[in-house]
């Protein structure tokens, strides 16, 4: 199966071929996977070197000339390090573009904390007007990237990860999907967390919603699934609690409880591998089941 990053490289190459407005701006990362695109479109594939502030600024500058820039590097170097440029060059100037990250929260633990970005979506939440896509499969990554590039001059963030679900679903860039229905609460699985969530809630009487577009937050889908007195668990592949405020706002007219599960704030200083980081943050199926059933004790499987 393709990785999301490999699919991104192929898809952005096709988009460069198809749309003369599209430009790709890189900071060395993934350059080896877009060599053909660089050969065919040397004027629209721009590698600025390891200069992440310039990466974002150049992307915004292209947008101001009428181009549709796709700006790409690891999440920590795309959102956190050049955050001032994201805030001012895109936000303050009213420029649109597509930021596409790789590396996620813990995809390459050997790279250390500099290559981890669990706070990226929470950081973008401090800004206005960003659409955020979190695909869980390479097919979804392609669909959401195409949706983002076609989205006029909007500001869009697409968060890619090495962690992926077994199957891709038919995502549309706006709404949550209902994967299964139950009567005893709602569990929202974000992007690559779906397979672990489904394994964790097997036999539990809960609804599972699948979110690959988390901003804007699909409050209507949550209200429909939750009913009049909901308990909601949100399982996200980044900082725990990132979307709890959005869920609380969606459910403000009814009594409810919300539990946010995700990456903890404590830095893990032993590199390990991705599976070990999932377990350490309580995001593996066994840990998720324990935490969900503790929050929803009446939703244990029937005898």
From TrEMBL:
Residues 2-167 form the Transketolase-like pyrimidine-binding domain. This is Transketolase C-terminal domain-containing protein. SUPFAM superfamilies: Thiamin diphosphate-binding fold (THDP-binding), TK C-terminal domain-like. It comes from the Bacteria. InterPro entries: PDH/Transketolase (IPR051157), THDP-binding (IPR029061), Transketo_C/PFOR_II (IPR009014), Transketolase-like_Pyr-bd (IPR005475), Transketolase_C (IPR033248). It holds the Pfam family Transketolase_C. It comes from Streptomyces solicavernae. Transmembrane segments: none annotated. The lineage of its organism: Bacteria, Bacillati, Actinomycetota, Actinomycetes, Kitasatosporales. CDD domains: TPP_PYR_DXS_TK_like (cd07033).
